[in-house]
Amino acid sequence: QVQLQESGPGLVKPSETLSLTCTVSRYLISNGYYWGWIRQPPGKGLEWIGNVYHSGSSYNNPSLKSRVTISVDTSKNQFSLKLTSVTAADTAFYYCVLHRRDAHSSYYFHSWGQGLLVTVSS
Amino acid sequence: SYVLTQPPSVSVAPGQTARISCGEDNIGRKSVHWYQQRPGQAPVLVVYSDSDRPSGIPERFSGFNSGNTATLTIGRVEAGDEADYYCQVWDSGSDPVAFGGGTKLTVL
């Protein structure tokens, strides 16, 4: 069973850049699949942020516009999230996830990291 | 993009059957996936592609999708099933992922 683990700072100042890394175990990112991020403000629902393929091609939630960059480092078996110009509204649990596709070409989130709370505050 | 409607809460006695709905026009044309999130934990996939179960998920969890409503059914409910449940679809287009607002299952 693939395992995912988020890492990064738990506190980021407003207007700065949030940077998180997800380390994948028991599966090589270079073998395929899409990898991505989902966030959840405390006490609220889930929001998909975006994903990246092992080739490096990525796609982001248009609601986050150009603030998001998701990249992959196959040599480290990791992928990363950068979110620029953060505000208090970006305070959330951030989960890294493995995307899988079903027979109808619908993607779902098969495996999740344990989550990391990132607070935006000065 | 899809806007998935779930009831905020569902309550059921132990041993009974819980049904959680996820509604949207013509959702039956999409694959629906369900996640369980116990308090303080990350979500876990419990049903994918309307009715398939990942390995390790009990047969008590089942799903059905038709028309305008998808339903997650949990049979013989246990105290450990108390959690928030989210439905999700993937739609082609610029905003591909939609989650329901979540349903809190309370085991009485």
Keywords:
heterodimer; A: 122 residues; mainly beta; 11 strands; B: 108 residues; 6-stranded mixed β-sheet
Would you kindly provide a written description of the structure presented here, covering whatever features stand out?
The complex is a heterodimer of chains A (122) and B (108). Chain A has 122 residues and is mainly beta. Chain A starts with a strand and ends with a strand. Chain A has no helices and eleven strands. In chain A, a hairpin with a 4-residue loop joins strand 7 and strand 8. Chain A is globular, with a radius of gyration of 14 Å. The radius of gyration of chain B is 13 Å and the shape is globular. Chain B is built from no helices and nine strands. With 108 residues, chain B is mostly beta strands. The chains are: A mainly beta (122), B mainly beta (108). Chains A and B meet through strand 10 of A and strand 7 of B.
Q: Report the uncertain regions of chain A.
A: none
Q: Major beta sheet of chain B, specifics?
A: 6 strands, mixed
Overall morphology of chain A:
globular
Secondary structure class of chain B reads mainly beta
The helix content of chain A is under 10%
Q: Compute the separation of the termini of chain B in Å.
A: 36 Å
Q: Which oligomeric state applies?
A: heterodimer
User: How does the helix and strand content of chain A classify structurally?
Assistant: mainly beta
Q: What is the radius of gyration of chain A computed over CA atoms, rounded to a whole number of angstroms? A: 14 Å
Total number of beta strands of chain A? 11
User: Element order, helices and strands of chain B?
Assistant: EEEEEEEEE
Strand residue content of chain B: 35-45%
What's the overall average pLDDT of chain A, rounded?
96
Radius of gyration of chain B: 13 Å
Largest sheet of chain A: 7 strands, mixed
Number of separate strands of chain B: 9
The averaged pLDDT of chain B comes out at 96
Query: Largest interface, and how many residues on either side?
Result: A-B, 24 and 25 residues
The number of helical segments of chain B is 0
Counting H and I runs of at least 4 residues, what is the number of helices of chain A?
0
